[in-house]
Design a protein that fits this description.
By secondary structure, the protein is mostly helical. It has a single domain, classed as Rossmann fold (3-Layer(aba) Sandwich). The chain has 19 helices and 7 strands. Helix 4 crosses helix 11. The protein is globular and about 65 Å long.
Length: 417
């Protein structure tokens, strides 16, 4: 059976109940009554109400929260459903932060946990990062951050009961509801309570993250994020990993998010022995796919239908990430990271993993290899559909994008697809 094809245009909100809710919200907005109100103080109160701790873990989150909410109110044109979703997202993130701060205060030994030589995948989305993180995470001595763990961090799941933790079912139910509302995004990005999650979710604890930009068009926040100090976000990132590792020990973490490309110096100050992997793919395919995904993620939550401005924003973010990575590459030691071409990863994924290990004088264990081979046999059996995208939808062409990123493609020998 041929898989259904989805573009960002199939991501419109179709639920009659939610469409009615948004109609009511739009009528209220006409009389300048925004429901619900979106203020920093309101989000903080909501997070505190749910948290079992009154420890805020410092106030470094306040400036990014203020800037994000100001951008949402001025630029995003959220519908009522979107305002509810964004408020809930922010409150949940700060709730996790407050709970984590309280947990660390009650368990000070958590801060003694050593996050040793983590694999850190820094490539742009759509460059094979999900596949690679899964394969590296199949190493019995390594682990990935799982979606349900990031969603409800505290208490960190215990080794004895993690497999039956009720938060797994809760998160799975929430994701199923999301995919029912917007099946298009299931074809564009893997979702699941027990699959590897981008560690950008841990930057959410400080509201300094690309993650919040997927929900709303907030260009002013995006410009601020590109130049802000990411040190507080990495402090929360590390504390979260320490808490999770304290109750489920591991030899090595497998982490991934393109957000790292923007701040490689801070990444390496936080994790000096990180094993960094930069995945590379034809930017034309990557950025067009990403533009479609970004529009699909935001489309349910906004009255805006200007898909081109959203695409241009993510084109700018991608360019900034690549240029930041290249600038760091210019001044760093030659072996600061390993470069992996998408084509090589797709041609022979297991061989690619062997090459990554060999760079560090290691070999994947026989059990790791067996697990990778077994997983590869199962891969793709439950496809949620096929993502279709066209640069012309955003006023682009593949030739134009190839020219825009010519220096990048030449440096890393990235062929066009």
């Amino acid at each position: 059976m041929t898989a259904a094809a989805y573009s960002f245009r199939e991501a419109d909100l179709k639920s009659p109940a939610l469409r009615t809710l948004n109609w009511v919200g739009n009528r209220l907005a006409e009389i300048r009554l925004e429901v619900p109100s979106l203020t920093s103080d309101g989000v903080i109160r909501a997070a505190k109400k749910r948290a079992r701790s009154d420890d805020l873990g410092g106030n470094s989150f306040r400036e990014p929260l203020d800037r994000y909410i100001a951008a949402v109110n001025q630029e995003a044109d959220l519908n009522l459903f979107g305002r509810l979703a964004v408020k809930g997202m922010l409150a949940a993130s700060l709730h996790n932060r407050f709970e984590l701060a309280g947990w660390a205060r009650e368990h000070p030994e958590v801060r003694e946990e050593q996050i040793k030589a983590p694999w850190v995948i820094v490539g742009l989305p759509r460059t094979g990062t999900s596949l690679l993180s899964i394969l590296l995470g199949l190493d019995p001595n390594a682990r990935t951050l799982l979606h349900w763990e990031a969603a409800r961090l505290i208490p960190p799941p215990a080794l004895a009961t993690a497999a039956e933790d009720p938060r797994i079912a809760q998160n799975a139910k929430e994701l199923a509801q999301l995919l029912k509302l917007n099946p298009a995004i299931g074809a564009m990005h893997p979702f699941g309570a027990t699959i590897a999650q981008e560690c950008v979710a841990l930057f959410m604890l400080d509201i300094r993250t690309l993650g919040v930009e997927t929900q709303a068009y907030v260009p002013s926040y995006g410009r601020w994020l590109q130049g802000c100090d990411m040190t507080p976000a990495y402090a929360q990132h590390k504390l979260a990993l320490q808490a999770l590792q304290a109750t489920q020990p591991t030899e090595r973490w497998v982490l991934k998010t393109p957000n790292h490309l923007w701040c490689l110096q801070t990444l390496l100050e936080s994790y000096p022995d990180a094993r960094i992997i930069w995945t590379h793919r034809d930017p034309g395919k990557v950025i067009t796919s990403l533009a479609s995904l970004a529009n699909a993620l935001q489309r349910m939550f906004t009255n805006r239908r200007d898909h081109v401005s959203v695409a241009e924003e993510w084109l700018a973010k991608s360019r900034f990430a690549i240029e930041s990575g290249m600038a760091y590459d210019d001044r760093a030691d030659e072996d600061w990271c390993q470069h992996l071409l998408f084509a090589d990863l797709m041609k022979d994924p297991i061989r690619a993993v062997h090459t990554l290990y060999a760079h560090h004088g290691e070999t994947p264990s026989s059990l790791h290899v067996r697990r990778m081979k077994t997983w590869m046999k199962e891969r793709g059996r439950h496809s949620e559909g096929r993502h279709v995208y066209d640069p012309a939808d955003f006023g682009w062409s593949y030739d134009g994008l190839a020219a825009d990123f010519g220096a990048y493609r030449e440096r890393f020998r990235v062929d066009r697809e």
